[in-house]
Amino acid sequence: MSNASRREYIVLLRAHYQKSTRYIRSLILFEITRNLGFHRKHAVRLMNAVDGPRKSPGRKPTYTAEVKEALKKFWLASRQMCSKKLKESFTDWLPMFDCPEVIKAELRKMSPATMDRALASARADGRRKKNTGTVPNRRLKNIIPVKPLDWNVKELGHVEADTVAHCGDSMSGVFAWSLTMTDVLSGWTENRAMWGKSGKGVIDSLDDIQVSIPFSLKSFSCDNGNEFLNHQLKNYLRIPLQRGRPYKKNDQCHVEQKNYTHVRDFFGYD
Questions:
Q1: Could you tell me the sign of the dihedral formed by the alpha carbons of 91, 69, 72, 115, in that order?
Q2: Which of 17, 191, 216, 227 shows the greatest Cβ crowding within 10 Å of its Cβ?
Q3: Residue 55 has what DSSP assignment?
Q4: Taking Cα atoms as reference points, which of 9, 2, 77, 78 lies closest to residue 47?
Q5: How many Å apart are CA 210 and CA 90, to the nearest integer?
Q6: What residues pair up with 2 in beta bridges, in sequence order?
């Protein structure tokens, strides 16, 4: 018996089963188990099933698709704030947002956790932030010291550096990188473009940067990428070379924020 024939047979028996007495139901179940080879409990479930589309479990959604779409537009206009800040920004910015008052009232009711769930798919579309081009150099990590956390800087020349990949959604092949260097005390920031990621590219960029800045370098801090932790750069620098802890972006907080304001804000993630 084909699957289509089985379904027709079950639908036909189900109509009789749900209107019959207990004795007739027992006979119908016996016929199903004998003819189709089903377990009796499975046959009971089939007979008690409701024809047509099944009702989705759980409670109905509180917010409509129009409200979620308006939230997405507001979130993009706010440069992708986190949900807690987005909730607080409604007080000042939502009255100027172009959408019906009914939707504005619904947005004001949303909690930050609900916003996170509603924006999950939109954040997944911009997942470029999850791709990283930092390849660690484990040999030099034991030689180059970790930057102290209580780094109280009182003079110019103590800089942090980082690179930003311009590769879209794929890290394969050779593409352009931006080198960002920020002075911790003054916030002076210099950017240079490199083709590919290498120690030589960083050195060439530093040569060009040192001609432009009005102060001399006194220390150089970076992450654990192999474009910084290499013998070329270590031998080139005549100043202390320090690194941040792996997966601790706050150790490089000054340059990390410049990666957005000076690079991503202009060129995006694509």
A1: positive
A2: 227
A3: P
A4: 9
A5: 44
A6: none
- Among residues 206, 200, 254, 261, which one has the least CA distance to residue 227? 200
Q: What is the pLDDT of residues 76-134, one digit of tens each?
A: 888 888 899 999 999 999 999 999 999 999 999 999 999 999 999 888 776 545 556 66
8-63 pLDDT, tens digit each: 888 888 888 888 899 999 999 998 898 888 999 998 988 888 765 666 777 888 89
Q: Measured in Å, how far apart are the chain's first and last C-alpha atoms?
A: 54
Contact 223, 252 (CB under 8 A): yes
Question: Against a cut of 0.85, is the pTM above it?
Answer: no
**Is the sign of the CA dihedral 241, 235, 180, 206 positive or negative?**
positive
CA 45 to chain CA centroid, Å, is 42
Instruction: Give residues with Cβ within 8 angstroms of 51, minimum separation 6.
Output: 11, 14
